[in-house]
UniProtKB/TrEMBL annotation:
<keyword id="KW-0813">Transport</keyword>
<dbReference type="InterPro" id="IPR016641">
    <property type="entry name" value="EGD2/NACA0like"/>
</dbReference>
<dbReference type="Pfam" id="PF01849">
    <property type="entry name" value="NAC"/>
</dbReference>
<dbReference type="InterPro" id="IPR038187">
    <property type="entry name" value="NAC_A/B_dom_sf"/>
</dbReference>
<feature type="domain" description="NAC-A/B">
    <location>
        <begin position="18"/>
        <end position="83"/>
    </location>
</feature>
<protein>
    <recommendedName>
        <fullName>Nascent polypeptide-associated complex subunit alpha</fullName>
    </recommendedName>
</protein>
<keyword id="KW-0653">Protein transport</keyword>
<dbReference type="GO" id="GO:0015031">
    <property type="term" value="P:protein transport"/>
</dbReference>
<dbReference type="InterPro" id="IPR044034">
    <property type="entry name" value="NAC-like_UBA"/>
</dbReference>
<dbReference type="GO" id="GO:0005854">
    <property type="term" value="C:nascent polypeptide-associated complex"/>
</dbReference>
<feature type="compositionally biased region" description="Acidic residues">
    <location>
        <begin position="117"/>
        <end position="133"/>
    </location>
</feature>
<feature type="compositionally biased region" description="Low complexity">
    <location>
        <begin position="101"/>
        <end position="114"/>
    </location>
</feature>
<comment type="similarity">
    <text>Belongs to the NAC-alpha family.</text>
</comment>
<dbReference type="InterPro" id="IPR002715">
    <property type="entry name" value="Nas_poly-pep-assoc_cplx_dom"/>
</dbReference>
<dbReference type="InterPro" id="IPR009060">
    <property type="entry name" value="UBA-like_sf"/>
</dbReference>
<feature type="region of interest" description="Disordered">
    <location>
        <begin position="87"/>
        <end position="137"/>
    </location>
</feature>
<dbReference type="Pfam" id="PF19026">
    <property type="entry name" value="UBA_HYPK"/>
</dbReference>
Length: 166
């Protein structure tokens, strides 16, 4: 057992880059912290919903209590965006290759053309601030007429208008 600890300590010393880190590892060894191998990822959640993750961490466990010490580079982890990226990758792998439309089939470009005509029409913007219209257009990436319509439907509430357009 002593041989395993000294071998683990030697491996840790080789990983330790700076002099300060080596001192910290030596002090931890004196405190009775033992390496806890086999951990590939550590995720920590903060009270306000922030999530941090450490990939390939070095984990130590106290021999006297259930206390763990983790070394590694913590990154702000957004589980929703990571799950979305994984889902997109999975869909891309499963999706069949796009088929060429037949010459007799109507092209779907006709629908956007009708929509763009509707967007070009002048819209009555009375009662709506020009700054609000520009903000909605920029944030929701929509035309002026859609922005005005959304603002009127939501009683000039910027946030609701943008959320309804997204």
């Amino acid at each position: 057992m002593a041989d395993a600890h000294s071998e683990a300590a030697l491996n840790m010393a080789m990983k330790a880059g700076s002099k300060t880190e080596k001192k910290a590892r030596k002090a931890m060894e004196k405190q009775g912290l033992e390496p806890f191998p086999g951990i590939t990822r550590v995720t920590m959640r903060r009270a306000r919903g922030g999530i941090f993750s450490i990939n390939n961490p070095e984990v130590f466990k106290s021999s006297t209590s259930d206390t763990y010490i983790v070394f590694g580079e913590a990154k702000n982890d957004d589980a929703a965006s990571r799950a979305q990226m994984e889902a997109l990758q999975q869909m891309a792998m499963q999706a069949p290759p796009p088929q060429q439309p037949a010459a007799s089939e109507p092209t779907p470009a006709a629908a956007p053309a009708a929509e763009s005509k509707e967007d070009d029409e002048p819209v009555d913007a009375t009662g709506v601030s020009e700054d609000d219209i520009n903000m909605v257009m920029k944030q929701a990436n929509v035309s002026r007429s859609k922005a005005v319509k959304a603002l009127k439907e939501n009683d000039n509430d910027l946030v609701e208008a943008i959320m309804n357009l997204m």
